[in-house]
Amino acid sequence: MQNRPNEAHRALRRETEPARTPLSALAKPEIRVALVTAIALVLQAVLAKNVLEVELDYGSQFAALWVFIVFLITGDRGRFAELGTIVTIVAVTASVLALYTVW
Asked: Which DSSP state fits 103?
Protein backbone atom coordinates (compact mmCIF):
# COMPACT_ATOMS: atom_id res chain seq x y z
CA MET A 1 0.00 0.00 0.00
CA GLN A 2 2.90 2.34 0.43
CA ASN A 3 3.62 2.26 -3.31
CA ARG A 4 0.30 3.83 -4.24
CA PRO A 5 0.96 7.25 -2.62
CA ASN A 6 4.35 7.36 -4.34
CA GLU A 7 2.76 6.64 -7.71
CA ALA A 8 0.13 9.32 -7.14
CA HIS A 9 2.83 11.76 -6.09
CA ARG A 10 4.85 11.03 -9.24
CA ALA A 11 1.78 11.48 -11.44
CA LEU A 12 0.95 14.80 -9.76
CA ARG A 13 4.54 15.97 -10.13
CA ARG A 14 4.50 15.11 -13.85
CA GLU A 15 1.34 17.19 -14.30
CA THR A 16 2.77 20.24 -12.55
CA GLU A 17 6.23 20.23 -14.16
CA PRO A 18 6.58 22.42 -17.24
CA ALA A 19 6.82 20.47 -20.45
CA ARG A 20 10.32 20.29 -21.84
CA THR A 21 10.38 20.92 -25.55
CA PRO A 22 13.29 21.61 -27.88
CA LEU A 23 12.30 25.28 -27.90
CA SER A 24 12.22 25.56 -24.10
CA ALA A 25 15.94 26.36 -24.19
CA LEU A 26 15.05 29.62 -25.94
CA ALA A 27 13.52 30.84 -22.69
CA LYS A 28 17.02 31.69 -21.43
CA PRO A 29 18.39 35.10 -22.44
CA GLU A 30 21.90 33.67 -22.84
CA ILE A 31 20.68 31.28 -25.51
CA ARG A 32 18.82 33.97 -27.46
CA VAL A 33 21.80 36.33 -27.40
CA ALA A 34 24.14 33.47 -28.35
CA LEU A 35 21.96 32.64 -31.37
CA VAL A 36 21.97 36.27 -32.52
CA THR A 37 25.75 36.35 -32.06
CA ALA A 38 26.23 33.18 -34.10
CA ILE A 39 23.99 34.46 -36.89
CA ALA A 40 25.79 37.80 -36.92
CA LEU A 41 29.22 36.15 -37.09
CA VAL A 42 28.21 33.85 -39.94
CA LEU A 43 26.57 36.64 -41.93
CA GLN A 44 29.55 38.90 -41.37
CA ALA A 45 31.96 36.21 -42.57
CA VAL A 46 29.89 35.40 -45.65
CA LEU A 47 29.37 39.04 -46.62
CA ALA A 48 33.02 39.97 -46.03
CA LYS A 49 34.34 37.02 -48.01
CA ASN A 50 31.86 36.82 -50.90
CA VAL A 51 30.43 40.32 -51.29
CA LEU A 52 33.13 42.70 -50.08
CA GLU A 53 35.98 40.33 -50.98
CA VAL A 54 38.07 41.39 -47.99
CA GLU A 55 39.71 39.53 -45.14
CA LEU A 56 38.77 40.87 -41.71
CA ASP A 57 41.41 41.29 -39.04
CA TYR A 58 41.16 39.38 -35.76
CA GLY A 59 39.57 42.14 -33.68
CA SER A 60 36.87 43.10 -36.13
CA GLN A 61 36.20 39.53 -37.23
CA PHE A 62 35.04 38.61 -33.73
CA ALA A 63 33.57 41.97 -32.67
CA ALA A 64 30.11 40.49 -32.09
CA LEU A 65 31.67 37.75 -29.97
CA TRP A 66 33.43 40.34 -27.78
CA VAL A 67 30.06 42.00 -27.11
CA PHE A 68 28.56 38.62 -26.19
CA ILE A 69 31.45 37.93 -23.81
CA VAL A 70 30.84 41.26 -22.09
CA PHE A 71 27.15 40.31 -21.76
CA LEU A 72 28.13 37.04 -20.08
CA ILE A 73 30.64 38.69 -17.74
CA THR A 74 28.26 41.39 -16.54
CA GLY A 75 25.74 38.82 -15.33
CA ASP A 76 22.73 41.05 -16.03
CA ARG A 77 19.99 38.91 -17.56
CA GLY A 78 17.10 41.35 -17.62
CA ARG A 79 15.01 41.97 -20.69
CA PHE A 80 16.53 45.43 -21.18
CA ALA A 81 20.09 44.08 -21.00
CA GLU A 82 19.22 41.32 -23.45
CA LEU A 83 17.66 43.67 -25.99
CA GLY A 84 20.48 46.18 -25.56
CA THR A 85 23.06 43.49 -26.19
CA ILE A 86 21.24 42.22 -29.28
CA VAL A 87 20.99 45.74 -30.71
CA THR A 88 24.67 46.32 -29.93
CA ILE A 89 25.69 43.07 -31.64
CA VAL A 90 23.75 43.97 -34.78
CA ALA A 91 25.13 47.54 -34.75
CA VAL A 92 28.73 46.39 -34.26
CA THR A 93 28.43 43.85 -37.06
CA ALA A 94 26.92 46.43 -39.41
CA SER A 95 29.58 48.97 -38.44
CA VAL A 96 32.43 46.57 -39.15
CA LEU A 97 31.00 45.75 -42.56
CA ALA A 98 30.40 49.44 -43.30
CA LEU A 99 33.97 50.34 -42.33
CA TYR A 100 35.41 47.62 -44.56
CA THR A 101 33.18 48.79 -47.40
CA VAL A 102 34.60 52.31 -47.22
CA TRP A 103 38.14 51.36 -46.26
From this structure: -
C-alpha–C-alpha distance, residues 79 and 29, integer Å: 8
State the first-to-last Cα distance of the chain, in angstroms, to the nearest integer.
79
- How far apart CA 88 and CA 74 sit, in angstroms, is 15
Rounded average pLDDT per 10-residue block, the chain, 103 residues = 60 62 80 96 96 93 96 93 97 97 88
Q: What whole-number distance in Å separates Cα of residue 98 and Cα of residue 103?
A: 9
Half-sphere exposure of residue 68: CA atoms within 13 angstroms, side-chain side: 20
Task: Decide if 36 contacts 90 (C-beta within 8 A).
Answer: yes
